[in-house]
Amino acid sequence: MNRVLVIDQDSTTTTRTLGLACLQRGIGVALADNVCEGVRVLLETVVDLVLVDVAALRLTPREMATVFARIAPGVPLAVAVRPETPLDSRVALELAGFRVLTKPVTVEELVEKAPGV
What is the pLDDT confidence band of residue 11, given thresholds at 50, 70 and 90? Predict the structure, then answer.
């Protein structure tokens, strides 16, 4: 894996934890505070994985997955959810095409959820 796009409204915390851990493993990190900014990053930067905080999703999971698929076809999508997120919400995200990760997300989980990348 060369680079991951992280879309998270709390990018300060993400930068300090996940971002630094990725950099230590040689994985580049592009950060965006919201989906609109993330789309702009995707138009300019090649990434191997998109990780988005579920709180940043403003459309339905299927609509959001469609947007990302049109902008960055073939790029795996992962969504970070809170530990208390109900099973039915997790399943809906999986069915839409997201790989569901529980916060706090680790580098190992990112690599595991994007096999072959």
Answer: low
Phi/psi-derived region of residue 29, left when phi > 0, alpha when psi is between -120 and 50, beta in every other case? beta
pLDDT digits (tens, 9 = 90+) for 26-46: 889 998 989 999 999 999 999
Q: What does pTM read for this prediction?
A: 0.89
The span from the CA of 75 to the CA of 89, in Å, is: 22
Name the amino acid, one letter, at 102. Answer: T
Q: Please give the order of strands across the beta sheet that includes 3-7.
A: 28-32, 3-7, 49-53, 77-81, 98-102
Identify the structural domains of the chain with CATH numbers, from first to last. 3-110 (3.40.50.2300)
